[in-house]
Each structure stands twice: as C-alpha cells, then as structure tokens.
Amino acid sequence: MFIKTLRIVDTTNDVVMRQVDFHMGANLVRDTETSESHNKVGKTTFLKLIDILMGAGNKKLLYTDNATNAITVDLQNIISDRRIAAELELADSLESSHGRIAHLRVDLFPRGHYFIDGERLSASAYRERLNQLIFGINDNVPTFRQLIASFVRVAVGGDSDKFLRMLPNGNYATYRAIYNHLFKISDPRLDKELSELKLSQSRTRESLRQYKRVNGVDTAEQQEQILAALEAEYENWARTYGIAPITSSYEA
C-alpha cells in the first residue's frame, strides 16, 4: 500500500491544521523558495509523525530531543492543549480511486488512543492490524515493527551488511524471519520453529560442556570407565560389609 495523505488535526474542533498529499515517485520536504534558512522546516518532525503512525511507541519523541532529552515546551503544550492527532490514509494505488483505502489515526497527546478505520485499538493491536493490512501477516511473525524497519536505511556507508541490521536487539533468527518473509524465501513460522530448536540444541550442548568440565571428562568412553570403576568399588565395599550389591542399569 502507498501513503496517500497525512493530516495533523486539532481534535478540540476537528480542524485540519496541516495536510500533505503524496504522489507517485519521490516526495521531498522543502521550505519556501524565499526562505534564507533550510533548517527547522519540520523534516524530522514530519518523518517522526509517519513513524508514530507506523506504530512507533514513544510519542514524546515528537517534542523531546533523543540525544539531550531537551523538551520543546511550546510544541508539547500545543499537542496537549489542542489534543492533536495525526492521521494517515493508505491506498492500494495513488493513481486510481479503486482498491482499498485504510484510515489510520494516532492521538499524540498523553493517554491518547490508536484507531484504524474508526475502530479504537490498543497500541499492540494497532501494530498487529497494520501487519495484517500492509504485509498480510496474521500471526504477527515477524512483527510489524521488525518489518517496517527494513525499509529505513540509516547506515549504508557503514559495514557491508550494516544497513540490513536495522533492529537495536535483533538476532540472526529474527533477521532470517524478516528477510525470508520480505523476499518470499520461506515460511516465517517454520523459521521460528527452527530457531527454537537451534536454541534448545545450543543449551543442551552448553549443559554437556559444563558437565564435562565439572566432572573432568571429555568423552563418553572416559565417563564409562569412571562409572565402571565406581561400580566395582561399591561391589567390593558391599562384599566387605555384607550389603547386597545394587543392580546396575548401566551398559558399557
């Protein structure tokens, strides 16, 4: 689906404060031709609004500097006092009136809500619905936020594969599920099951390694020799003190 329209709405009186219509091809954010400065025209805020409408969790970042935690108080007050909401229209086509159109809305003020086509949703349900709507995923594997991050390249000039790794804590299995879905390589559910099996295998191997370290053995043959020696010692002790020997279930 394509982003068709972005609106900023004053919900206290249902006034559209700003509307941006998108078209096919590149859509550029610029200031007026007569401006002497090309800074502070709202490029970052514009992108943050889209990110929030795409399910980003921290709406406070609209008026809070992520690096310094400094708050733009005027913007914070406007959002709170006017109960500002952001709205987005998604469409199957920007050149035809046919096809699906989805209406998204996120209240930007504290304790605001999420809506899709007028239905109020929790934040998590909103993201899951977006996953169904945009990517056709009904079981939320991989998650919508994991997938949508794949379309934002922030460090192409870094390591050769750095731009592929867009998640702060994504592991190999998560990336495998994301790209397998995006490029239709395999079923993400099977990838998840494979990942869980590999994790179980890794834990078992680590347990075996720790067991060998603690007991001072490296091979199964060494363990068999130790068990045989212990059984022989016990049998000698049992004969000496007249105790019935144990029946061993151990097979060499």
Short summary:
This protein has 252 residues and is α+β, with helices and mostly antiparallel strands.
What fraction of the residues are assigned to beta strands by DSSP? Answer: 5-15%
Weakly predicted, low-confidence segments:
154-160
Instruction: Give the total of beta strands.
Output: 6
Mean pLDDT across all residues, rounded? 80
Structural Rg: 30 Å
Head-to-tail CA distance between termini: 65 Å
Across the major sheet, the strand order is: 2-1-3-4-5-6
The secondary-structure element order is EEHHEEEEHHHHH
Helicity level: 25-40%
Sheet having the most strands = 6 strands, antiparallel
Total helical segments:
7
Shape, per Cα inertia axes: elongated
Structural class: alpha+beta
